Every structure is written in C-alpha cells, then in structure tokens.
Amino acid sequence: MSKQYNVNREVNDAFYRYKMPGIVAKVEGQGNGIKTVIVNMVDIARALNREAVYPTKYFGIELGAQTQIDKKNERFIVNGSHDSEKLQDILDGYIKKFVLCQQCENPETKLQVSKEDIFQTCMACGNKGKLRNMGHGLANFIVKQHKNTKIDNKRRKNKGEEENGAKPSTTTKDIYKGERAEAHTKSNGTHKDEWDGDEWNDSDSEDETSNQMAELSLREMKPSSMTPEQKWMAFEEYMAELIENDQLAGMMRAKEKIMQIILKADYYGVKQKAPFVLFEKLLTSENFAPVLKKYRGVFLYINRNTDDTPDLKAMKYMIHAFEIYIEKYPNLMDKCGVFLKFLYDTDVLDEEVIIEWGESKASKKYVPKELSGAIKEKCRKLVEWLKVAETESEDESSDDEGALEFAQGQVGLVEVKDANTPVVEEVVAVTVDGEDIEIEDI
Question: In this predicted model, what pLDDT tens digit does every residue of 79-111 receive, in sequence order?
C-alpha cells in the first residue's frame, strides 16, 4: 500500500481530512522505448475528484514528454524514466493550479467551461472565479477536450438532423470514412457545463470520454495492424499533442524538425491527406494568414515529395481542405479568392493545381455541390489571372526572371527564403475578358 499524503502537502496537520495515495511509478522498457507507468493514477485522481487523464497530461506537459493514456485498461504512461518523488512534486503543481480553491485552498472544487475560459467554483467557501492558469497547456487541453466531447454528443443526439439552421460541417474523420458529418449545433456562448472532475453533466459524456481516451493508445500500435481509419486517427492525435504541448511552433525553426511531422504522416500512410488535419487543428475563422505564416513550413513540405518536387495529389487534397474550411466558416466566403491566392503566394499551392480545380465541375464529395460551385465562382478571377500568368510566362525571356508581364500591369514573384520569412506581394492589375482585375481585391 502506498504512503498517504495530504492533498495540499503544504498543510502539515495530521488530521487534515483530504488525503491521497502517494504516486507509485514503474519504469518499463529501455533505450528509446523507456516509459514510466503510473500504477495508481486512477486512485490518485479519484482522491482529487478529477479524471486521471488530466494529471497525466499535466505530467507530460511539465516534463516535455509524450503521454499514452488507455483509460479502458487503466494504463497511464509518461514517456521517459521518472521516479515517484519527482512525479509527486509535479503533481503538487497540478493540485495547486487546477484543484485547490483560489480563495481558501480547499480541494472541494468544480470546474466549468464557457467559451475559451475555465471557471472554478469552491463547494466549501462558495468562491467563484476564472481559473488563473489559463495560459497553461493543460487549460487549453481541457477546453479543447470539452468542445470535442460536446460536438460529438450533439452529433450523436441529432444524427440526420439540422438544428437551428446550422449547416453540417465535414471533419477529418468524415474524410477518411467518405461520408458527410452530421449537423453541428452552434453554441450561443451563454451556457456553462459543470465539471465535477471530468464528469460533465451530460448523460452520455462519460461513455464518450472513455471512447476518446481509448483512442489515445493508438500510437502504441504498429501501422501494419491498424485499419486505415485508425492510422488517420493516430496521426490526428499526434498533431493534437504537438499543438497542445506548444511544441509545433518550435519545430518550424528547422527543416529537419518539420520533416519529422512529414515522416510521421508518411509512417501512418496519410501524408497526402494530412492537409485535412492541418486545416482542422490549426485554422479558425480569424487566423488564416497568421497561422499560414507561422506554420508555413509544415503546410509547404506536406505538399512536397521526398525529392522536393511538388506532390500534386496532396495539393488537391489541400484545396478540398480549404473548401471544408469555408464550409465551416461561411462568413469567410467573400475572402475565398484572397485566401487561395495567399496559399499560392506562399508556394503552398501551385498554379496548375488551382487552375485545374477552378475549371473542374462542382463536386459534392467534400462539401455540398452548391457550395463547391459558389467557392469556385468566388475564386474565378484568381483562376483566370493564373491562366493569363501561366500563358504569358511561357513567352517571356529568361532575362525577365522574377517578373511576369501582362496586358496591363506587372506582378513580382513572391520570394520565400525559409519557413519564417514574411510574405511580400505586389499589387497586380490585369485585364481578363475586358475587365480590369485588382488581384489584391480578389
């Protein structure tokens, strides 16, 4: 039996009522495969009135290590070799930040998620307030997990229906299954869902969370023993962890780090469809250009072959991911051409792929057929401009490298030296079918 500690170990009172078992850690494996199993993580979490996944994720974030969580079999693992004493000290940080009341330091607290914030309510002193540690990676993880659970619950409950006129939006899992997503209900942002540990007050949330946590053990499997959908989900989980642990941005500083992501996608056999994951995990309605600049390296190289030649199939999937992005945020419809040109200017997409897509018929494979046609129409001027640019460039002398001449106006080719180089573009005026087009206004 493990040693018992006060939940708040700064309290030295032997009669302190809130107790928890000490961490029992078991190191397994060797070399690069060494890992630490927290044998009694479930018992510790129960004493804290929290779900075991959250302190485990906290360990991973604090140690900069990957975590493996198999809730069904109660396996909670942190990669690397870590002794019980070290983990116990880190657990104190989790308790202070996410369990103890910010007013009276009593552990009888509940958490609520509203929009992008977590609020704490103390059942002992009645204090209510926003969690002070919203900048911590675990806070971001909690919010995202809550959102994902709520969306999946609504999808299950409202299968085959559309609520409040909201349009169904395609998810990355739907892409691999080849089917449309069920309707999503848009939250009005006023409802708060109470959290007692990880037990959201929804009748089916516990089962849904169990399913999600079971998926976290996928990367322990070999691709040869995984279904195509499991491979897809494993890569999606890998990307989610990089984002949640604030590792992705740092990897953009060197090509060899970016290539680790590309090789991981290739390892699971999903490289060409990886753009769907990038768009879903990184882009919101307000951050298209900043995210493309910040993570340009991974968007660029996911569309390249190992010999650095364009992977046209991956580019085609990226345009389809772009269509789904517009479906998800219909208020951005008028900016379709601007965003697509931004992908072209940053060398993420080649003109031939954009032209081929723009001239193809509307398709219902990824988004509704009507929406597909509407997006193509919004990008028509860009497609026509690229066709003119392609034709004119073939007639230019090699001495004119770096510039393309048109009937009216010139454009300077965008120069991108590395993944962090800002994009600089020049205004273009060109005549198409007798109409003057300002490319900056597309």
Answer: 999 999 999 999 999 999 999 999 899 999 998
